[in-house]
Amino acid sequence: MQLVRGIHNIELKTQFSRQGCVLTIGNFDGVHLGHGRVINALVAKAKARGVPSAVMVFEPQPQELFSPNTAPARLTRLRDKYVLLKRLGVDYLICVNFNRKFSNLSATEFVEHLLVNKLNIKHLIIGDDFHFGKNRKGDFSMLLAAGKRFNFTVSDTASFKLENCRISSTEIRKALVEGNLADAEKMLGRPYAIIGRVFHGDKRGRELGFPTANILLKRRVSPVSGVYVVKVHTQYGAFDGVANIGQRPTILGVRQQLEVHIFDFEQIIYGQIIEVELLYKLREEIRFASLTELTAQIAIDCNNARKVISDINLKN
Q: Where does the Riboflavin kinase domain start and stop, copy by copy (predicted)?
């Protein structure tokens, strides 16, 4: 899958202008089972027409621009979406920089300049409640009319939704906040995971006898926090571990990050991409009076995590 960052990188000489594409637009936060149905329909429609499939997302998400203080926590960052959409067979992920200038684009300009001239869309899959353009004046009926004018078809995402199943990013976020990982997994179709690049931290875990791989959760507040039993996927294979997600209050941390102690693992993975699946929540993140108390609790967490993993393996 090819990532296209910015409208300016959609060149007229590319595959879009030659063939066109089948497109869908949305946040796709979490890329859950409901999203999966839409993406499967997108890919099938593109293959039937012999053109690329494309997903358009916005960074930041519109609510994060207009209401940054009340915007919900992200389930997935752009990197996560890229990995998940690639697995579903999407050809292009188009990431549009959603800023004040773009938000002031008229609905007509959005359709004619971006969808028609730039992307040469042949079919658009979109929710019937989708609004676009300055003051959100563009809507589903406008897209239907534009399709007749510019020779593209439009279908509603509702026709691909799972029947008798309430799945939404909001419900998944709620389940994660409440520690209901099993419910979140059912809606996602997979364990909730965080994907990111391992960066050099302050090596505090190593000093305490529990070295960690760290992922910085920048540009969002994670919907989860606390200490979790995890499965870590690396280029060396999958390993069990225990992770802390939060701000490390005992050492006065201020950045939101994920720290994972991987069991029986000695490889150096700085700079590498890992995927951390959350399997079970052990406890909330708390502040300890001293590093000695923190170290003792980490040892307890590791023992408890191994017991949980043993129970999981027995059930499987």
A: 187-310
